[in-house]
Amino acid sequence: YARGIHVDDSGNIYVVDHNRHRVLKYTLADGSYTQSIVAGGNDRGSSLNQLYYPTGLYVDASNAVYVVDERNHRIVKWPEGSTQGVLVAGGNDSGNALNQLYNPHGVSVDSSGNIYVADYSNNRIMKWAPDASDGIILFSVNYPTKVHVDSSGNVFVLDYNSSRVLKYTLSDGAFTQSSVAGTGGIGSELNQLKYP
């Protein structure tokens, strides 16, 4: 089943095909779509041409696809047209050391190439500088499922366990946390969410 989606400025659609261990691209041309595999698709596994239950993605301006490779506890970058990925975060088995992830679920990349990871089973948001072997812990969050960084450096997080969307506003080099959705607790009212 699909676990992530991205639509680029040209209308192309990228979809995480979780149970088939791949990412598909639907390229729009002349009003119709053609489908191709842009990451994985070589059964499940831990080689750099494979994925193991991917859960999220981010596509940058160069059409490189960053894939959350959940069961391999890593983030893998697939440059456009490549047949295998490049390890950019984690990949050192599951764990809570600064060079490890544990069932990551979401990824985002800022304009400087820093990689933000929703490290689900470690209850944290990690930030990895380009080419870094270790990340840093930005925030502790109860089972974060997705992360997004906007052009101002603010970080948005889906807090699964608390059923809310958190915003970490960047000002003078420090973050301030606020709840921007799901402020009414768990439920079905307009101010509520249920395990996003």
Q: Would you write up a description of this structure?
A:
The protein is an all-beta fold and 196 residues long. It is globular and about 40 Å long. The model has no long low-confidence stretch (mean pLDDT 94). The chain contains no helices and 16 strands. It is 0% helix and 48% strand. Strands 1-2-3-4 form a four-stranded antiparallel beta sheet, with no helix packed on it. It has a four-stranded antiparallel beta sheet with strand order 5-6-7-8, with no helix packed on it. The chain starts with a strand and ends in a 15-residue tail after the last strand. A hairpin with a 5-residue loop joins β5 and β6.
Q: What brief labels describe this structure?
A:
196 residues, mainly beta, four-stranded antiparallel beta sheet, globular
Report the average pLDDT across residues.
94
Q: Helix count, per DSSP?
A: 0
Class from helix and strand fractions: mainly beta
- For the biggest β-sheet, the strand order reads 1-2-3-4
**H/E element sequence:** EEEEEEEEEEEEEEEE
Distance separating the two termini? 17 Å
Biggest sheet features: 4 strands, antiparallel
Number of E strands: 16
What integer value in Å does the Rg equal?
16 Å
User: Which stretches are low in confidence, meaning pLDDT under 50 for 5 or more residues running?
Assistant: none
Strand content: over 45%
Helix content: under 10%
The outline comes out as: globular
List the helices and strands and how they pair.
Elements: E1 2-7, E2 13-17, E3 22-29, E4 32-40, E5 54-59, E6 65-69, E7 74-78, E8 86-90, E9 106-109, E10 115-119, E11 124-128, E12 136-140, E13 144-149, E14 155-159, E15 164-171, E16 174-181
Antiparallel strand pairs: 1-2, 2-3, 3-4, 5-6, 6-7, 7-8, 9-10, 10-11, 11-12, 13-14, 14-15, 15-16
